[in-house]
What we know:
Layout: E1 26-30, H1 52-62, E2 66-70, H2 80-88, E3 94-98, H3 106-115, E4 117-123, H4 135-142, E5 148-152, H5 158-167, E6 172-174, H6 189-199, E7 203-207, H7 222-234, E8 239-241, H8 258-263, H9 265-268, H10 271-287
Parallel strand pairs: 1-2, 2-3, 3-4, 4-5, 5-6, 6-7, 7-8
Amino acid sequence: xxxxxxxxxxxxxxxxxxxxxxxxxxxxxxxxxxxxxxxxxxxxxxxxxxxxxxxxxxxxxxxxxxxxxxxxxxxxxxxxxxxxxxxxxxxxxxxxxxxxxxxxxxxxxxxxxxxxxxxxxxxxxxxxxxxxxxxxxxxxxxxxxxxxxxxxxxxxxxxxxxxxxxxxxxxxxxxxxxxxxxxxxxxxxxxxxxxxxxxxxxxxxxxxxxxxxxxxxxxxxxxxxxxxxxxxxxxxxxxxxxxxxxxxxxxxxxxxxxxxxxxxxxxxxxxxxxxxxxxxxxxxxxxxx
Length: 289
């Protein structure tokens, strides 16, 4: 019998951020683990719930008003929890990213689109439901709906993924500052390659989750921060920010504090760059239709 997830025990409030989030700030990558939606075969277990109400408390704490709910790896292709979540959130402030398998029928895609889904998830790590090798097939399914992709892989493997990334015609976002495991110097040729992808005009980078890869650790995450600063300086109009709440990729003893993660942007980006990555860029990518 599958063990039922425990209620949330993560902190949902505390001292306010130093960064005052501009009006309309979008958290571009977070997850909900609602009650009644079990982990599926192939995905990781769900230890704790993370409800719409829990996240609303985090939003109020951080001063964030809009969100992109990303279907968890735990739920694989079971989109019921994502659809339920979007139905419980204000449609003017929430969008979704779903995991859709190659060959998914158009009726299913339109049902998801009607629910507020505006993207498809590609995850090239264990537990990911759709891999980078399948990204082109997924793109061809969702392009006419105007969806983008979010793509997560180890940045150290960028060379292997470049042919597929270069071939994508739709907008797509590279997750978590490229997710270099371990981090590389900011002038590494693979960071150069990501910048060239940004210059093509349909790639974005999500500035998020430095705690997942940093060897130097917080609160500065200086190794990941150097890559983030280079990306932001090079193409602020192609960057997004995300909390990655509720941080299920790390153990509880390494659980990060959400406030310092947001406050990193005070060091990593100028006020003008923060306006782009927090408000203007996600508005264009997720909320303009």
